[in-house]
Amino acid sequence: MSGKSAILRQTALVCLLAQMGSFVPAKYAEIGLLDKIFTRVGATDNISAGEIYLYGGDERSSEYPQ
């Protein structure tokens, strides 16, 4: 529980804000144009079964469109 998902979510949101030309919460930011930002909604950890959301996505990453 060290905030990996939170920092990934925050990074994606900052990239999205920059793409829109909106305010970016930083003193300086140089963010290039991105073709795609992928996300998954509603995923949860199942600690008792040893399933962690951050690692569980590896097996499903082939489902993302190219």
UniProtKB/TrEMBL annotation:
Residues of the DNA mismatch repair proteins mutS family domain: 1-51
GO CC field: cytosol
Classification via SUPFAM superfamilies: P-loop containing nucleoside triphosphate hydrolases
GO molecular function: ATP binding; ATP-dependent DNA damage sensor activity; mismatched DNA binding
Record-level GO BP terms: mismatch repair
One Pfam family this sequence matches: MutS_V
Annotated keywords: ATP-binding, DNA-binding, Nucleotide-binding
Coiled-coil positions: none
Identification of the protein by name: DNA mismatch repair proteins mutS family domain-containing protein
